Amino acid sequence: MNEGSRKAIIAAFFANLGIAISKFVGFLLTGSAALVAESVHSFADTGNQGLLLLGAKRAVREGDEEHPFGHQRERYFWAFIVALVLFSMGGLFAIYEGISKMRHPHETESLGIAIGILVVAIMLETYSLRTAVKEVGHVKPAGQSYWQFIRTSKSPELPTVLLEDVAAETGLFLALFGVLLGHFTHNPRWDAAGSIAIGVLLVVVAFVLGVEMKALLLGETASKADRLLLSNALRNHPQISEVIYMHTEHLGPDTLLVATKAIFEPSLSAEDVSRIIDEAETAMRAAVPSARFIFIEPDMQRLAR
């Protein structure tokens, strides 16, 4: 994990912890359904940041007999768990709480406390979101949208934190509108509606995050630019005439597996072929440093009969 990802996670962890505590206190004082939904969401987000840090720590372990390619996919696994936590503890709980209050409505007490806590939470969440956006800006290619970054990034931490922060910021405004509408219309069902809206939002975000992490867990190919660099590095060797195929797969954000088959000059000896493979691997790693595992199968040109 790079320093930018770690900084964004730590900022989100402390912001969410402070927000969760303040929201829960606010719920105890006001009885707001939106506040209890938001407090559970923030506690879940705090735990999620811990899971991302855990995944990053476990991913750096060296390969062993049972995991010869290392443990890089731990980062994808724990990010997938984050999506499940966001779906269950965040989304489903908020929907349940909203439906419960819709059926048994009661007015929110101490409106000033509820609004004050939500405003403070918005300020803290804005800081966390600003940090995430800033760190994404350091790694996102120029001209690429944030949505494209989330869809194409091979690193799970920054997209996860960014999605969580956007959902949290939006959820806070939904909670604020729900509390205000419930108070001024004297209809507490608006507060319940705010809780349900927060739940639906979190379920959608969890679904998007889960789909992206599932794709990475199953193994995604390298980017088109990296595949071209690897292919050119192999083709540029003077004694390799053609690349028959090249398959790539991300074992982790910074670890790429490359399996390729190429046509070598037919006059080469076994010793020459071995030397050329070593040279080609060196050139490919120079072109794409994340290509840590490279397997080149030599073939000979078949003459037409």
From TrEMBL:
One Pfam family named in its UniProt record:
Cation_efflux
Gene Ontology terms: cellular component: membrane
Q: Which residues form the Cation efflux protein transmembrane domain?
A: 9-217
Enumerate the GO terms in the molecular function aspect.
monoatomic cation transmembrane transporter activity
Q: Which SUPFAM superfamilies match?
A: Cation efflux protein cytoplasmic domain-like (SSF160240), Cation efflux protein transmembrane domain-like (SSF161111)
Q: Which GO terms describe its biological process?
A: zinc ion transport
Note whether Transmembrane occurs among the keywords.
Answer: yes
- Subcellular location, record wording: Membrane
Main localization category: membrane
What residue intervals traverse the membrane?
Answer: 12-37, 76-99, 111-129, 166-185, 192-211
Q: Does the keyword Transmembrane helix apply?
A: yes
The alphabetized UniProt keywords are: Membrane, Transmembrane, Transmembrane helix, Transport
Topology versus the membrane? Multi-pass membrane protein
Give the matching PANTHER family: HUEL-CATION TRANSPORTER, PROTON-COUPLED ZINC ANTIPORTER SLC30A9, MITOCHONDRIAL
Q: Which NCBIfam families match?
A: CDF
**What is the protein's name according to its record?**
Unannotated protein
From which organism does this entry originate?
Answer: freshwater metagenome
Q: What is the lineage of its organism?
A: unclassified sequences, metagenomes, ecological metagenomes
